[in-house]
Design brief:
Layout lengths: L5 H54 L4 E2 L2 H13 L9 E10 L4 E10 L30 E10 L13 H4 E8 L9 E2 L1
Parallel strand pairs: 1-6
Antiparallel strand pairs: 2-3, 2-4, 4-5
């Protein structure tokens, strides 16, 4: 063995250790940010699934009564679990829209959860607005649609919260539209 090679190895090992010490915290923060983005996507997909399931179930009703909404909102909470969309963390809004000849109108709207979320479709009795994500929906005179909107407030993780702060990552929403199978559900019976 050549004794002159050992000091070079020690110097290289020392510089690698110093480089790792400098880079490790950056890699850890980036790793947590990636995990937070994955969590964001998981929540967004759950909200999308919940909106689709809820509007599909509502569209199958033959007649809607006020007491049916408790069952529907319970379903939304179970599909979205563990995310509490029907509590103070979020909201579920169901809307019936129809073109009665004077344009699309919101026939009725029911909600459960936080009141801090406004429907993208308008308010009960007013003109309906069709959000940009559903531009392909057009209602001819006499046609109707049901909408389910799901909102949820999530907190980014502590370290990645500095990089992923703001509404797109903390206030999530999803909606689904479907035509009702029975026209009778456009009116709610007492």
């Amino acid at each position: 063995m050549n004794p002159s090679r050992h000091p070079d190895r020690r110097r290289r090992r020392g510089s690698v250790a110093v480089e790792f010490t400098l880079v490790a915290p950056i890699l850890a923060v980036l790793g947590l940010a990636v995990l937070d983005v994955v969590d964001f996507l998981r929540v967004a997909l759950r909200l999308e699934r919940t909106a689709g399931e809820v509007v599909n179930v509502v569209a199958q009703y033959q007649a809607l009564r006020e007491q049916d909404f408790a069952t529907i909102f319970d379903l939304a909470g179970r599909v979205a679990a563990p995310y509490r969309v029907t509590a103070s963390d979020g909201a579920v809004i169901l809307t019936a829209i129809a073109n009665t000849g004077t344009g699309a109108m919101v026939l009725w709207q029911r909600r459960q959860g936080s009141g801090g979320y406004a429907s993208a479709f308008g308010t009960e009795g007013g003109a309906a607005t069709i959000p940009a994500g559903s531009a392909d929906l057009s209602l001819a005179i006499g046609q109707s649609a049901l909408a389910a909107e799901i909102f949820y407030a999530r907190e980014p993780w502590v370290l990645s919260g500095r990089f992923l702060a703001g509404d797109p990552f903390s206030r999530l929403q999803s909606f689904a539209l479907q035509r009702p199978r029975m026209v009778s559900i456009l009116r709610i019976s007492p």
